[in-house]
Sequence to fold (104 residues):
Amino acid sequence: MVDSDFRRSIELLMARVPEGSVTTYGDLAAMIGRPLAGRFVGGVAHTGAVDLPWHRLVNRFGRLASGYPGGRAEQARQLEREGIACSDDKVEDFEDRRWRLGSL
DNA sequence: CGAGTGACCGCAA
DNA sequence: ATTGCGGCCACTC
Fold:
């Protein structure tokens, strides 16, 4: 099934990200079939789907986003609240907590 | 309807 | 190590 709604797929994936796990813009984009559309993934986050846990979205370096509402400190707090330790605005064991398809 | 834009990614100087 | 540029994709004004 070809989901013409690109952001629809993003929202679906975001809704499936388990707590304690994080994902990256690039990976998320790659999951839906657009590995180069990482930019747009952030765009979707900025415009809609407020009900989704965007705080689990980080860049490929495991670093917290910069445009998050409240700032990185807020996002870091959200992650720690779910059991994810953060250090200097970075997710610890990021590679290990990196969510991926297969849990579906 | 057209152009700009973005919470990115990768490489080059 | 840091800074700058381009590209890529779909959305917003």
